[in-house]
Amino acid sequence: YFRRDGVLSCCFRVAKVFRENSDKINCFDFSPNGETVISSSDDDSIVLYDCQEGKPKRTLYSKKYGVDLIRYTHAANTVVYSSNKIDDTIRYLSLHDNKYIRYFPGHSKRVVALSMSPVDDTFISGSLDKTIRLWDLRSPNCQGLMHLQGKPVCSFDPEGLIFAAGVNSEMVKLYDLRSFDKGPFATFKMQYDRTCEWTGLKFSNDGKLILISTNGSFIRLIDAFKGVVMHTFGGYANSKAVTLEASFTPDSQFIMIGSEDGKIHVWNGESGIKVAVLDGKHTGPITCLQFNPKFMTFASACSNMAFWLPTIDD
């Protein structure tokens, strides 16, 4: 696809658009095998899509509590998600029979980050209550608690051995999962930018890079070992401080983000050069964007969900 030298060896086109939602899609997640994608929306619905057949399979509802930050677990047909109404409990749902398996109470304000371990049943959550909590799917009790100085964003690394916390939109702290109670083993301080907040943090699949999303019109790529800012990517529209999801391609070579005008911007992570702007024909800001972990496709979402396929040019 986008070749390593930054030349497009193929482009992507929107293959299908789904209009299953009446409000914005706030999150989606591909299954580890890449065969399905599940979305959560501000209209309180959970939609399961079949990626191979390219069609929606099922719609479930979480009318009472709302649904946000939906994530597949490693068990087949189960997800965790945060609530955006009534309380701030995290819920563990079986898609098979649409029944809750477990609840994870503890946060006292809205959950703004949720990351599943790539290797086991551990997950972490970050909240506006200025804490990060560590959980195990098998127990409703919090397994660990970190008090921070501000709003956190957090994510596991690809090996599930460490996790990163972005705190107060100015610091990245790295924790060893086995000894997180001893505090971070590394802290990287960034230049604070009062014009925007950090809204997300992701590791590249090779574990070497960390991508920081903001609600401004730039994202930052940092070296995961040294904490050095390698590139700041900008030049995309986000005038209303919308939370836009940025993502790596699975080969860790390229970084993609949507914008408020329905376009997707792509950069080469090594050179920092913008290599493509793709028109998603989205009707609103592209709040969610992720590459399929196993197949050469990606998805983007506003209140509509779009599946993208490569168009190979000879």
Automatic annotation (TrEMBL):
<dbReference type="GO" id="GO:0001111">
    <property type="term" value="P:RNA polymerase II promoter clearance"/>
</dbReference>
<keyword id="KW-0853">WD repeat</keyword>
<dbReference type="InterPro" id="IPR015943">
    <property type="entry name" value="WD40/YVTN_repeat-like_dom_sf"/>
</dbReference>
<comment type="similarity">
    <text>Belongs to the WD repeat SWD2 family.</text>
</comment>
<dbReference type="GO" id="GO:0071027">
    <property type="term" value="P:nuclear RNA surveillance"/>
</dbReference>
<dbReference type="GO" id="GO:0003682">
    <property type="term" value="F:chromatin binding"/>
</dbReference>
<dbReference type="InterPro" id="IPR020472">
    <property type="entry name" value="WD40_PAC1"/>
</dbReference>
<dbReference type="GO" id="GO:0005730">
    <property type="term" value="C:nucleolus"/>
</dbReference>
<protein>
    <recommendedName>
        <fullName>WD repeat-containing protein 82</fullName>
    </recommendedName>
</protein>
<dbReference type="GO" id="GO:0140744">
    <property type="term" value="P:negative regulation of lncRNA transcription"/>
</dbReference>
<keyword id="KW-0806">Transcription termination</keyword>
<keyword id="KW-0539">Nucleus</keyword>
<dbReference type="GO" id="GO:0032785">
    <property type="term" value="P:negative regulation of DNA-templated transcription, elongation"/>
</dbReference>
<keyword id="KW-0677">Repeat</keyword>
<dbReference type="GO" id="GO:0032968">
    <property type="term" value="P:positive regulation of transcription elongation by RNA polymerase II"/>
</dbReference>
<dbReference type="GO" id="GO:0110064">
    <property type="term" value="P:lncRNA catabolic process"/>
</dbReference>
<feature type="repeat" description="WD">
    <location>
        <begin position="236"/>
        <end position="277"/>
    </location>
</feature>
<dbReference type="GO" id="GO:0000785">
    <property type="term" value="C:chromatin"/>
</dbReference>
<keyword id="KW-0805">Transcription regulation</keyword>
<keyword id="KW-0804">Transcription</keyword>
<feature type="repeat" description="WD">
    <location>
        <begin position="104"/>
        <end position="139"/>
    </location>
</feature>
<dbReference type="Pfam" id="PF00400">
    <property type="entry name" value="WD40"/>
</dbReference>
<dbReference type="GO" id="GO:0072357">
    <property type="term" value="C:PTW/PP1 phosphatase complex"/>
</dbReference>
<dbReference type="InterPro" id="IPR037867">
    <property type="entry name" value="Swd2/WDR82"/>
</dbReference>
<dbReference type="GO" id="GO:0000781">
    <property type="term" value="C:chromosome, telomeric region"/>
</dbReference>
<feature type="repeat" description="WD">
    <location>
        <begin position="18"/>
        <end position="59"/>
    </location>
</feature>
<dbReference type="GO" id="GO:0048188">
    <property type="term" value="C:Set1C/COMPASS complex"/>
</dbReference>
<dbReference type="InterPro" id="IPR001680">
    <property type="entry name" value="WD40_rpt"/>
</dbReference>
<dbReference type="GO" id="GO:0006353">
    <property type="term" value="P:DNA-templated transcription termination"/>
</dbReference>
<dbReference type="InterPro" id="IPR036322">
    <property type="entry name" value="WD40_repeat_dom_sf"/>
</dbReference>
